[in-house]
Specification:
The structure holds 2 protein chains of 2 kinds. Chain A is 30% helix and 16% strand. Chain A is of the alpha+beta class. Chain A contains 5 helices and 5 strands, in the order ββαβββαααα. In chain A, α2 runs antiparallel to α5. Chain A is globular and about 45 Å long. Chain B is 26% helix and 25% strand. Chain B has a 7-stranded mixed β-sheet with strand order 3-7-1-14-11-12-13, sandwiched between helices. A 6-stranded mixed β-sheet of chain B has the order 10-15-16-17-9-26. Chain B has a 4-stranded mixed β-sheet with strand order 18-27-28-31, with helices on both faces. In chain B, a hairpin with a 2-residue loop joins β22 and β23. In chain B, α6 crosses α7 and α10 packs parallel to α17. Chain B starts with 24 loop residues before the first helix and ends in a 9-residue tail after the last helix. Classes of the chains: A alpha+beta, B alpha+beta.
Amino acid sequence: MNDERFGVSTTLVVNGRPVTRSAGGHVTLLRWLRDEADVLDPKYGCGEGVCGACTVLVDGEPASACIVLAAQCEGAAITTAAGLLGDDGEPSPLQRAFHEHHAAQCGFCTPGMLMCAQAMLADGTTRSRDEIREELHGNLCRCTGYQHIVDAIEDAQGAGR
Amino acid sequence: MNDEIRTSKLDELRVVHQPLARHDAAEKIAGSTRFAGDLAYAGMLHARLVRSVVPSARLTRRDVSRAAQVPGVVAVLLGEDVPNNEISVDVPGQTIAVGALKARMQILATERVRFHGEPIALVIAEHEDALAEACEAVEVEYEELPVISEPADALAEGAFKIHEGGNLLAEWRIDRGDVDAAFAAADVVIEGAYATQFVDHAYLEPEAGVGWYDDDGVMNLRVATQVVEHYRDVAKILGVPDSKVRVIAPYVGGGFGGKEDMTVEPYLALAVAHTRRPVRMQWTRNESLLARAKRHRNHMTYRTAATNDGTILAQDIEIVSDAGAYAYLSALVLLYSSVHACGPYRLDAARIRATTAYTNNPPTSAFRGFGGMQVVLGYESQMDELAKWLRLDPGEVRKRNALRRGDRLPVGQEIITEVQLAQTIDAVRERAGDKPAPSGPRKAVGRAIASNMQSYGRLVWLNDSAAAWIGFQMDGSLTVRCGVPDIGGGQASSLGQIASEILAVDMDRITVHFGDSALNPLAGTTTATRQLLMSGNATYEAAVMLRDQLLGAVALEIGEPVEAFAMTPAGIAGPAGTTAVTAALQICRRRNVPVEALGTFFGPKGKEVTRDLDGERLFPDFTFGTHLADVEVDLDTGEVKVLRYIAAHDVGRAINPLSVEGQIAGAAVQGIGQALLEEIVMQDGVNLTGGFFQYLIPTAMDVPDIEAIVLESGEGLGPFGARGIGEPPIGPPLAAISSAIADAVGARPTTLPITPERVLECVERGAPSTSPAP
């Protein structure tokens, strides 16, 4: 069909590794990551930037990958949950806190939650539970009722990451 | 003690009852869990459904020729291409007078559509872009038919028939004692009408899966499902033997009942069978909201007769539920509503009339609480009104009427385990302390409690069973195989804990293989709060068998009685020291003793129901609990803020206290969402809530911490005396929140969700509460 599907070459630095793929100019960052680059931890939850399951860091800022075009991100550093793991594959303190506090039940929102939380930790502010909840409002979870997630983030920021 | 209860002593537990981090979370926090939509095969095709854009119509033309020409399209299938295009569900307990005994629906509609979003054609293509273009190119012409939006209209004389057998799908009746005499003798009669709404499960993972033929010609479907046993339904649709279909359930991104009925399975199977290539199907959020079955909206009228001391004499209850366009599990959901209608209270007389009718709304089916939760709004609103009318303490009124072991429900079922309802009431109130003060002059604070009961385990006449296999590896590590789907509640992890407890193997040396209909023993559905009861007990039995095999072999080897030996983390302890497990396994090998065991647990049995419910045990058992809510109402805007939320349940025994707290918190928040926010809005059969911008679930900002209080009576029918906790905590929020608003503003909201508009109506009706909380 339309040849422009394969028309735009985009290079992104995904979890520290440069990846170049050609895809249509209409292809979202989420689809680019999942279908073209086989980066599967960002999830499709709603496709309209509401649920946060596809949250990734674009040059350190959280973004809903389902409403950003891949081509717009040319050259950007993209961080996903897998990018939080240490070189040895060890979970980060934030990820460990999620594990220990039962912050993941079904785990589908978890990769996006982690990226939102990572952005919170990165600015060095120590937040109250209410402030953490406010920051999390763009990431929906249907299993936990949120509080184990808030527990984990509170713990991780207390531990100085 | 009843011999169905397998209780445990806390000081004897080593692994069970520990707040362990779940083994599956390691992958989940790394982002590496492969959910149903994450799998890909080389040469994989993609499939999407063309769905009806109208709620009620005859299909006068379906033309796929243009769609088939779209580059990249491999096939476009219609109902005529489906080997068996009709599936049916049993509608138990009904008579011919009450519509069809079998309710039928098509996989792909050929002549008629009955709801907005009903599947008509299946497009299969090489890539997603071609799918979108081809779906647009499928030509469907509709001759629109009348749309029925309300069950009352559906049941009216001469109503347009949505199905040939008529619009009445099922009805249930319970008659116990002399209701009329009780009302005549009553000091006080409380009356009320309550309405709940259509609710969506709104799990974060939309329906998805990948299908392929394996090297033996078996259809494999790896799908997000709560029920691997749907392989049988798929086989029927394809017209192949059951043994030729395998369903694999990877970790599921949330279920809540929404993945209990089939979703992508039949379509994936058709696409794979037609193309002989791997196929992936992922529903969009819009498809999920439009077309997957919802929670029933119930219309409920209650009358309660009581004496001046608050003793309930009788209830007279009418329930009408909206079954939507197709039957699915509506008859059973309504049965749950009927049996749970009077709540956790003892009464000598009850009359319950329950009806479910077809409409042109989306189908309704299973959803956490399964009909047993909507009625909490009814019975707890009545209880609260009764206390208020008699100026009695709401907790004391509930305790006065609370069920006890040996009491019978209106349906006749005897309660066989200890009921700690009173303890849950005391627990939430003790924790809560004083009611907080309003934060401003135009704010009002309200407090209320709501208690409930919810069954765990399937209806007993369904002859439920579950099997689990446990085998020692020769290095002493352990493999557990059980067909249970893990939908995020820690189902698999719990089985590991149970096996670890009995066989004294560390959790990190146990692997649980789950969710596979071909390679694992079948354990039944992850629904009805049944998996801990069923596969938990099956695992328990397998573990005990295996333990006894090892102990027996070692006892023979050493020449001492078997009673002298016990499994310990260090090995098999006996009179002359400890035998390492690896050595014990070698002994088993030499003595022809198996180092594996298959346990099958059979649920309690009962007689199949008839429409007039009478006298029999319907459920294995029930879980009881009480919630307390503090809310603050803005008297000018109608905005409701949940200040504090406390939830106490007797779970018998907490296998993993963190998982239990997670279930309670998650269910309470889902219930608060239903109380205040959520509604699938229909207008003349058209769904207006097709995205997460329209369908609002609670965010982290909308809810407070849920303070979970876990009571452990030690009495449940699950392993170690556990009761199920997956569903029970979702019911009380409906009543706790609405009663707390009533306490704050002096008038009771009776229709969900309690939007600011509805709150303001209550503010107008009632003067803000100035009396102290009881």
